[in-house]
Design a protein that fits this description.
The protein is built from 3 helices and 2 strands; from the N terminus they run αααββ. The chain is of the alpha+beta class. The longest helix is centred in the last third of the chain and has 20 residues.
């Protein structure tokens, strides 16, 4: 099912809005782990490049993750020469690997 409000709007407004998320329910946590572990492969397929999967989070977890994303964006702008990512509950910074 779609999440969020589906407010009526003009066709011009709908072009500017992001698509609403879709909630998917599966039978077990093992399936969830399998799906999320393979989610990064979506970017390799041009048809699904804009599709993102995220685990179900409580309000507290969403708040904490939002803080991590803000910190990640700050580091990306402050230190563009490094690679930054979120792992676990922290932002990690590492030297970019040089490609030959």
């Amino acid at each position: 099912c779609r999440v969020g409000s589906g407010a009526k709007s003009t066709p011009q407004d709908s072009a500017d809005r992001r698509p609403r998320p879709v909630k998917v329910t599966v039978g077990s946590s093992a399936i969830v782990k399998e799906i999320l572990s393979r989610a990064k492969r979506l970017k390799d397929c041009s048809e699904f490049r804009g599709v993102y999967l995220a685990p179900d989070r409580s309000l507290e977890q969403r708040t904490e993750h939002k803080k991590l994303v803000v910190e990640l964006k700050k580091r990306l702008s402050d230190q563009p020469e490094k690679r930054h990512f979120i792992r676990g509950n922290e932002v990690i910074s590492a030297e970019k690997q040089k490609r030959d």
